[in-house]
Amino acid sequence: MKVSANDVYKLKNGVEMPIIGLGVYKAEDGGQVKDAILAAIDAGYRHIDTASFYGNEKGVGEAIKASDVPRESLFITTKVWNDDLGYEETLKAFEISMDNLGLDYLDLYLIHWPIEGRYTEAWKAMEKLYADGRVKAIGVSNFHRQHLEEVFSICRVKPMVNQLEYHPHLAQKEMHEFCKMHDIQLEAWAPLKRGGLFEEPVIKALVEKHGKTPAQIILRWDIQNRVSTIPKSVTPSRIQENINVFDFELSDADMKKIDSLDSNQRMSKNPDNFSFE
């Protein structure tokens, strides 16, 4: 599978989404997130993933403005938080995010979590934003099959992206197949399990075989599984390391070894049984 940092996944509506991006969860608003994004853009990243909940949209906007890369060459994602789900609430939250980011349009807007009884009305608001041209693509995060099926039952436009906790300990195989069936691009958050996979013997053996870091082995696994991935870091050397995954390839045997690590281990809450109140 020959790919480069410039390659994209084409969403069902034709929008091109970079196959790798920078996540900015827990990056401090202001200088820290701005510096991280500028380092990422210099390294070749073109996708930046934030959320209203992260509290750093203003810093993301400052970085976009300070960058010498044209806005249309960047792919910017943010998300509507749980407290703002609902039709009017979501429309209002979007305007606040856009004001914070200082943008005229958004590339991808996601519902952050499937809060029972509220996300279908929020989805109708997402459809309006999409129809009005304010957002190029709309999708969801942390949605399982039953949540997606409920959206399908009321929607005019199906979600184009589903962002899930995804790493070798939680390969989400059933969800991946379900998303493929409905032409929904799977995107990985916490792809490195915050370093929790680096001591796995399988990963360490592949590090030795390919002369790469554990993070690079895992991110390459994402890419070869056709999953968009958004590793997070505020350290320039790590940001550079995480995008240097295009000069080697995992064999089918390598991929199967990493696949064998799947043990349904989550770092975060399970959307099926977690109360968000």
From TrEMBL:
It comes from the Bacteria. The active site is at Y54. The keyword NADP applies. Keywords: NADP, Oxidoreductase. GO terms for molecular function: oxidoreductase activity, acting on the CH-OH group of donors, NAD or NADP as acceptor. Residues 31-262 form the NADP-dependent oxidoreductase domain. Substrate binds at H112. InterPro entries: AKR (IPR020471), Aldo/ket_reductase_CS (IPR018170), NAD(P)_OxRdtase_dom_sf (IPR036812), NADP_OxRdtase_dom (IPR023210). The record marks K79 as: Lowers pKa of active site Tyr. Belongs to the aldo/keto reductase family. PANTHER family: 2,5-DIKETO-D-GLUCONIC ACID REDUCTASE, NADP-DEPENDENT OXIDOREDUCTASE DOMAIN-CONTAINING PROTEIN. This is Aldo/keto reductase.
